[in-house]
Automatic annotation (TrEMBL):
Keyword Signal attached: no
Gene: miaA
Chemical reaction(s) catalysed: adenosine(37) in tRNA + dimethylallyl diphosphate = N(6)-dimethylallyladenosine(37) in tRNA + diphosphate
Annotated PANTHER family: TRNA DIMETHYLALLYLTRANSFERASE
Organism: Candidatus Woesebacteria bacterium RIFCSPHIGHO2_12_FULL_42_9
Name recorded for this polypeptide: tRNA dimethylallyltransferase
Length: 317
């Protein structure tokens, strides 16, 4: 049976370090599930933490490429140029091919990251992503009132209609998309991962996590995030690009626009606050998944306990 190990949790919990250790122990390869690390050149601020001599290697254009650190391959970095649009659907398509390639070589794929939607897409599938907009349908609905649209949705997809909150019920754009999806959903194939799964979640107290996050931000400042952003801008990456709008980069926008009026201290402070908020949102997402086995990284034996669980699962039937 094919088996896929998943390591997830909020930023700053040491997911990649654990993944490298497990990859060494169980002959695995890592696949990043981080929406910021897909962009080329966005290294320091996204925490790729690659050794200076790491080289990007490509064997098959369909797989993208990989970096090697401590003898372990890491896939999922540098999938697109900073100016390119990149969707969850594209990520899922690429990563599923990568995972199959890892299986074909007899190794354990380890999907690791903090972007919950990426992980969900690979494991459970997100059928609505493959549903393309229907211009003809949208035009036929654009003159409808929100009440009429909700009534149509109730006939097309009563379960979806019942699940909408009051805000969504008053939003014509979302109602039309829900109708569009509802009319097409029955045609979609099941896109879930078929195989054995083990979910590992890393967590700790809010105080410890925030302290780790702050230390991590300070390290990224020391490693040259400011110089990295300058180089990206010099190489043509626009300040309003989607990549530059990601966490760890957008906090510097005003600093580069008005360096005499915006202090670097305030930029770093804001960055830390936003990282704290992000980690909270991540935990809200992950706590909904009851398949995750949680480990508190503040406990002395947490990593040994993880290794025992993985060994039992991987070597079992």
């Amino acid at each position: 049976m094919k088996k896929l190990l998943v390591i997830e949790g909020p930023t700053g919990t040491g997911k990649t370090s654990l993944a490298v250790a497990l990859a060494k122990k169980f002959d695995g390869e890592i696949v990043s599930a981080d929406s910021r690390q897909v962009y080329k050149g966005f290294d320091v601020g996204t925490g790729k933490d690659l050794p200076p001599d790491a080289k990007y290697k490509t064997q098959n254009p369909k797989l993208g490429g990989y970096y090697e650190t401590q003898g372990i391959r890491i896939w999922g970095y540098d999938l697109v140029e900073p100016h390119e649009e990149f969707s969850v659907a594209q990520y899922i398509k690429i990563v599923r091919v990568i995972i199959e390639d890892i299986f074909a070589r007899g190794k354990l794929p380890i999907l690791v990251g903090g972007t919950g939607l990426y992980i969900k897409g690979v494991i459970d599938g997100i059928p609505t992503l493959s549903i393309k907009p229907n211009p003809k349908l949208r035009k036929s609905l654009e003159e409808k009132t929100k009440e009429e649209l909700f009534e149509i949705l109730g006939r097309v997809d009563p379960v979806r209609a019942a699940s909408l909150n009051s805000s969504d019920r008053k939003n014509p754009r979302r109602l039309i998309r829900a109708i569009e999806v509802g009319l097409t959903r029955s045609k979609l194939e099941n896109s879930k991962f078929e195989g054995g799964l083990l979910f590992i979640g890393l967590t700790t107290s809010k105080e410890i996590l925030n302290k780790r996050i702050d230390e991590r931000v300070d390290k990224r400042v020391q490693k040259g995030i400011e110089s990295e952003i300058k180089a990206l801008i010099k190489n043509g990456v626009k300040r309003d690009s989607r990549a530059m709008d990601s966490l760890g980069y957008r906090q510097w926008k005003e600093y580069f626009k008005r360096p005499k009026k915006v202090s670097k201290t305030n930029v770093i402070k804001l960055w830390k606050v936003e990282e704290h908020k992000y980690s909270k949102r991540q935990m809200t997402w992950f706590k909904k998944d009851k398949r995750i086995n949680w480990f508190d990284i503040s406990l002395a034996t947490w990593q040994k306990n993880v290794e025992k669980l993985v060994e039992k699962w991987y070597k079992g039937a």
